[in-house]
Amino acid sequence: MDQKADLLGYLRLRRADLLAKLDGVSEYDIRRPMTPTATNLLGLVKHVGGVQLEYFSDVFGRPHGREVPWLSEAGEVDDDMWATADESRADIIDFYHFSARQSDATIESLSLDSAGEVPWWTPERRRVNLHQILVHVIVETARHAGHADILRELIDGTAGNGPQDPNVPSRTSDEWAAYRSRIEAAARQAGR
């Protein structure tokens, strides 16, 4: 069993799940804030691109050579969580693919026990290895792909991982409405 290959496979699947949430969605809908904290689809893609770039480049001393304004010292908090009007969908997707390639190159060239240091973590946690960071980034990517699942369902009703792996029961809109009503009734009854 090749643990590194398995972990990289999981990361690639979750990356694809997240990116697929942009398919067929208008420019407005991929950018609009859908929660009180302004979570949006394109911002999630931008954020995860930055997360993997920092963890698999900076932490292991592997410069990526790309200027990323929202990750610089001059950037504001949460600049990576949304796209400005001047940042195109194509630009963000290109950055996401770049960060994936850079990350994959690091993962493929190092062993799971290769040492790194996360300068933004507390001193007692900073020393890490590739295995720890790979698991950390898989969890982070899966978490944000889950956020994107919910946002996409709120935008247009699309649910599941995608057409090749829907991962949800096949129901008509009437069947979904009945299912939701049953759960709503149970919640109201429990809340009395």
List keywords for this structure.
single chain; 192 residues; mainly alpha; Four Helix Bundle (Hemerythrin (Met), subunit A); two-stranded antiparallel sheet
CATH superfamily: dinb family like domain
CATH architecture: Up-down Bundle
Q: Return the string of H and E elements.
A: HHHHEEHH
Form type: globular
* CATH topology type: Four Helix Bundle (Hemerythrin (Met), subunit A)
> What is the percent of helical residues?
55-70%
The biggest beta sheet reads:
2 strands, antiparallel
Distance between the termini: 52 Å
Q: What is the CATH C level class, in words?
A: Mainly Alpha
- List low-confidence stretches: none
Give, in spatial order, the strands making up the sheet with the most strands. 1-2
Q: Kindly state the mean pLDDT as a whole number?
A: 94
Whole-number radius of gyration? 19 Å
Q: Report the strand count.
A: 2
Quick gist of this model?
By secondary structure, this protein is mostly helical. It is built from six helices and two strands; from the N terminus they run ααααββαα. It has one domain (3-190): Four Helix Bundle (Hemerythrin (Met), subunit A).
